[in-house]
Amino acid sequence: MEWKSICNADQIGAGEMQIVEIDGTRFLVLKQTDDEPLVVPPVCPHMTMDLCDGFFDGEILTCAQHLWQWSAKDGSVHGGIAERPLLVYPSRKVNGVLEIQFESELRYGHETDAEETP
Amino acid sequence: MKVSIRNATEECQLECDETTPILHQALVCGIELPHECLSGTCGSCKARLASGNIKNLWPDAPACSLLKPGECLLCQSIPLGNCEFEIKTAFSRTEDPLPAYRRGMLCNVQRLNADVLAFSIAFDQPVDFLAGQFVALSFDGIDGMRCYSMVNTDTPSRTLDFVIKRKPGGDVSERLFGTSAAEQSVTCFGPVGKAVFDPKQAGNIVCIAGGSGIAGMLSIVGRAGSCGHLEHHTADVFFGVRSAADVFFLPEWAALAAEHPRLHVVIALSEEAPTDTLRMAYPSLKFEQGLVHEVAARSLSAPLVETTAFVAGPTPAVNAALRMLLMQMKLPAKLIKYDKFA
Predict the structure, then answer these.
(1) CB contact under 8 A, A57 and B336
(2) Which residues of A touch B (CB under 8 A)?
(3) Of B84, B105, B305, B338, whose CB has the highest number of CB atoms within 10 Å?
(4) Is A47's CB within 8 Å of B319's CB?
(5) Contact partners, residue B277, CB within 8 Å, separation at least 6
(6) Does residue B117 sit in the same domain as residue B23?
(7) How many angstroms away from the CA of A111 is the closest CA of chain B?
(8) What is the ipTM of this complex?
(9) B90 touches A at CB < 8 Å
């Protein structure tokens, strides 16, 4: 699987989130309070709400629609409402550039009839 | 007609008739399929028709534009014979009281200010509901259903009370605000809604409401008062409107605040400073200038603990309140109650 550059690592401040679009694919980059990035598809695994409309406090991402919550460390479920974790693109920083392992866009089952990409 | 609905892990079977939408029939039977608005707006109840045929009650429903080929809204679908559906989300059991279809009579239409009306629906039999719940109403001759929260404190009740804000061009709004608001029969489906007051779990209460979202808050706080909850817990109510001309229910809130020392009610005016006249007319209420979530943030102390927050109103006001409660007040999401039915 190839590594794909998606943005400069420092263009997103610690504790902030930003949508990055590369070749027509949108990624949501969450920068934790300690500046570590998490790159996820920008839609909620529940009902496809846009997660960039959600709330991010540097540690926990909350979808604005039904308050599903996930840890920005690894996309795991937080807080007892969310029923599914976030899909996560493996990422790394190389010379100040944020790269992700990318084969194809990660999608949840509700977006397509296909099974989910693990 | 037999209808089966399945997701990846479970399946339910329903016996449906030719008049009741499939979603509503499921809720009547105690099966909680995903839903919010019951009325074709939110798209939460979309499903894929795997076999069989349906009639779409409202092809122009706003959420129909979100559907892909082969998908339908269960709240707008009547089966034409046996059908099978697939959904992507989990379902559970509905808790009592189970919703039902009822016919009632419109009555007590009363102007509260230039843009807000109170109205009631009277039923032959008492209707049971939980404080904070809502119903979907269908007015004869007007397509679709619209959702309204009950204002009532006492339950069960043979009369359900509601408020409606004027919406220029809205069919129900025009009828109720117009001259044709004489007695007429109305179809009511409900009660539904999960943003309910549970005295065993609520702890202290915070209510943040914009405009007509205050309706359910009156029910919640009224119930908290009448069941003794406010003898041991506080309730902080923040009611946001644009100006003094837009306020309503102030006598009701003033009476509750005078009766319950642990209840604090703040009226937030977003577009003007409150006048001394207003303050003198309602000495048991507080008046402040600002957006309702900003006024609430100034009054509350972070972090909120042992507190349940109820939020209702126009979407921008709701989202701003949610953001404030989660980010500033560090309130866990599961202690925030709201129904997005608009």
Answers:
(1) no
(2) 46-47, 53, 55, 57, 62, 64-65, 67-69, 79-81, 83, 109-110, 113
(3) B338
(4) no
(5) none
(6) no
(7) 10
(8) 0.84
(9) yes
Q: Residue B54 has which token pair? A: 């349906």
A79 and B90 in contact by Cβ < 8 A? Answer: no
Report the gap between the CA of A19 and the closest CA in chain B (Å).
Answer: 19
**Which residues of chain A neighbour B44 with C-beta distances below 8 Å?**
47
Query: Mind listing the pLDDT tens digit for each residue in A8-65?
Result: 999 999 999 999 999 999 999 999 999 899 999 999 998 888 999 999 999 999 999 8
Q: How far apart are CA B146 and CA B143, in angstroms?
A: 10
Judge if B218 and B105 occupy the same domain.
no
- The total number of structural domains that make up chain B: 3
Specify the CATH number for the domain of residue A57.
2.102.10.10
Residue B88 sits in the same domain as residue B104:
no
Structural domain that includes position A39: 2-91
What is the CA angle A34-B333-B92, rounded to 5? 130
Find residues 305-324 of chain B whose CB sits inside 8 Å of chain A: 319, 322-323
Give the separation between CA B37 and CA B69, rounded to whole angstroms: 22
Question: Are B208 and B170 in the same domain?
Answer: no
Residue pLDDT, tens place only, B127-137: 999 999 999 99
What's this model's pTM, rounded to 2 decimal places?
0.91
> B59, B78, B93: which is the final residue of a domain?
B93
Cα-Cα-Cα-Cα dihedral sign, residues B248, B254, B255, B257: positive
